[in-house]
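Bench log. Compound arrived from synthesis this morning; before running ITC I wanted a structural hypothesis for how NAP sits in the protein. Inputs:
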Amino acid sequence: MSMTTTTKTNEIAILVTGATGTVGSEVVKQLTSPSSSLSSGSRVRAAVHSKDKADKLRSENKEVEFFHMDYNKPETIVDSLNGIDKLFLLTLPTPNMSEIASRLIKEAKKNDVKHIVKLSVLDADAEPGILIGRMHRQEEKIIEESGIPYTFLRAGAFMQNFINFFGQTIRTQNAIYIPAGDGKVSFVDVRDIATVASKILLTKNNDSKDKQQYEYKKFNITGNEALSYSQAAEILSNALGRRLSYVNVTEDDARKAMKKMQMDEWLIDALMELYSVIRSGYASQTTTVIEQIIGRKPISLDQFARDHASFFG
Ligand SMILES: NC(=O)c1ccc[n+]([C@@H]2O[C@H](COP(=O)([O-])OP(=O)(O)OC[C@H]3O[C@@H](n4cnc5c(N)ncnc54)[C@H](OP(=O)(O)O)[C@@H]3O)[C@@H](O)[C@H]2O)c1
C-alpha cells in the first residue's frame, strides 16, 4: 500500500532508516506508541534490512509500513521516499557511508522531503577530529548542500553500548574491558535520543516557532553527567546488586580481542582513535539539549541499568 494514497492532509509521513537497530527501533516505537502523546498525526514507514529483524519489528508494530532497503544495493533505495515528508537518517560508519547518504539525499530531494533529522556523533565538526566524526561530518555536509532543512543530532556514547558491546563480558565475567583509561564519557540513553528525534520529526511544517527552533540546527546530545568507566561500573554494580569491574586493557590487547572477533582493520583503528580521545578527556562535555527539547532531565545510568536488569542477568 502506498503512503502517498493513505496520508491524510495533516498527517506527517516519516521514513525511519535503520529502523530495526538500537536507535531506529526506539524512534519507531515512540512515533507509533498509542500511549505516547507524540504519536498523533504521524504515519511511519520503516526501512528494514535483514528479514529476521524486520519480522520482529513487524510483529510489534501493526501500524507501520515496511520498506526493504539495503544501503549497498542502490536499487532498493529508489522509491523509499515517495510520499514522505520527513526522514530520520541513520547510516553506519562504513567506507561508503557518504555514497549511501548521497543516494538517500538525492531521493529525498526528488520527493520534496521537508526535513531530515540525522543521527550524528558528538562534535562531528571537530578539527581534525576522529575518523568516525569526519565520516558523519561528510554526510552532514551532503545534507547541507542539498538545501533540505535539517537537524543534526550529534550524540555522545550510548548507554546501550553496555548491552550491545560490553553486555557479553558483563554477563559472563562481571567485567568491562576497554582501553579508555580514566577518561570521562557523557553517556546518553538512546530512548532520550529517540524522544528528541520524535519530537522534532512531529513538528508540523506550519508551526513556525518550532521550525525555527529545530531547522538548520546541530545539537550535541549527552546525558546529565560525565563518568569514567570505573564510575560507570560502580553505578551498574549498585543497580544490579553485584560487583562489576572495569579493566583498563592495553590498546594491544584490545586490538587482539577485536581481531579475534573478525572486525575490519579500519574499524579497529577508528575505535582505537575513539578510545584515545576518551582517555584525553574529550568525550566528557555535557549539554542540556535533552532537557531543553523534551522538558525533562535525561535518563541516568542508574535508571538505565535498573530498566535493563533482566538483560544483565
Ligand atoms: N554507539 C554509540 O555510542 C554511538 C554514539 C553516537 C552516534 N552513534 C551512531 O549511531 C549509529 C548506529 O546506530 P545504532 O546503534 O542504532 O545501530 P545498530 O543498532 O547497529 O542498527 C543499525 C541499523 O541499520 C541497519 N542496517 C545495517 N546494514 C544495513 C544495510 N546495508 N542497509 C540498510 N540498513 C542496514 C540494521 O539492520 P540489520 O540489523 O537488519 O542489518 C539496523 O536496523 C551510527 O551512525 C553511529 O556512528 C553511535
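What the model suggests: The chain has 15 helices and eleven strands. Residues 3-155+190-220 form a domain with the Rossmann fold fold (CATH 3.40.50.720).
ITC booked for Thursday regardless.
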